[in-house]
């Protein structure tokens, strides 16, 4: 029964990753299209050129879809308030927990850390390293394409804008691969174990970042910068790297949550609180990367390569720790032996 619950958790997270991929495909396809100012003609004014109008159109589409999804969320969930009879059955529990209800949520969240087992701390550590690897890419992916592959600069010529749109196309391909990987996630985890799959995907992510650094170095030695578009082979290689990164991204979106859910259950802390603890291992690296990536890049002469180098090292380290330190469940081991 326990293994069935674990499998359901992995499948649920895989479906979550799949639907993220569907939304990403549509969103990045929107970003890669440069003709929205013709559809929303009123966004183009004398003080707002085509690029500005495209951005305003994207914001309008955001507002429309947020309104639709908010309405669906409110109306689809048929939640009923507790009746007086059912409420009375919980009076003693509520009184017992009344003192805890007055505590700040963050205090409760951090107080949970002392109950975590060693395996959970390993998962949190790998999650933090994984997101130190992901955030430089997520922050600079389209800028890297426009600046280091197309050789452009913001507000200077069309090379940069063309590169940004090509980067959005690469992210759309990334989301397609993400969706395909989500469908295969459960089979991969059942065959090799969730921790092992997570580790391999992080090493693959590290290799992709290394390829991005190599492409940046190759482009710097070409003579097209500033006056022409990059060779088609370089652009295709960059798009392939973006696409392959969809595999580890799908695993990052699902496997850590499945692992933490199955291991936190025995502690009786609740799934919501366990997700909050896992999110700490995501948000803290995000703050570190957001504050430090700019000065770090400037320290080495600008560009996105220094942050990508840190991302490659962090991703490789997280992959090794996941493979070597995250124990396989008994069900995974039995499948390997059979």
From TrEMBL:
InterPro entries hit by this protein: MFS_trans_sf
GO annotation, cellular component aspect: membrane
Family the UniProt entry places it in: Belongs to the glycoside-pentoside-hexuronide (GPH) cation symporter transporter (TC 2.A.2.4) family.
Pathway field: Glycan biosynthesis; sucrose metabolism
Segments passing through the bilayer: 12-37, 57-77, 120-140, 196-219, 231-255, 267-288, 308-326
Annotated keywords: Membrane, Sugar transport, Symport, Transmembrane, Transmembrane helix, Transport
GO MF annotations in UniProt: symporter activity
Localization terms from the record: Membrane
Membrane topology listed for this record: Multi-pass membrane protein
Main location: membrane
Organism: Vitis vinifera
Lineage: superkingdom: Eukaryota
Name under which the protein is recorded: Sucrose transport protein SUC4
